[in-house]
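Input/output pair, single chain:
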Amino acid sequence: MEPTEDITSNLTIRALPARVRTTLTSRAKARRQSLNAYLLDVLSREASTPTMEEVLADIDSARASAGLITDDAVAAVRAVRDAEDARWA
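Output:
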C-alpha cells in the first residue's frame, strides 16, 4: 500500500481457521512485519495483479484499436509455417 493512499475501510475476516492465521503470522514475523502490515502487502499485491480475464480484455482492446483480428493473426502464422515447411521439404 502506498503511504499517500487514503484509508477507506477496515476489513473483518470471519471464521479464519487457526492454521491459516498461524501460517500468516509466521510469514509476517519472517518478514519482520506485523500481521496487519503483511496482510496489507498481500492484499495490495493481489489487487494490483490483473486476472486472466482482465489481461485478455486488455489484449482484445489493444488488438481492436490497432485493427487486428484473430483470423489475420492465424493466417499470418499459417503462412509462415507453410513457408518453413516448403523450405524444408
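Residues 1-49 form one domain. The chain has a mean pLDDT of 89.
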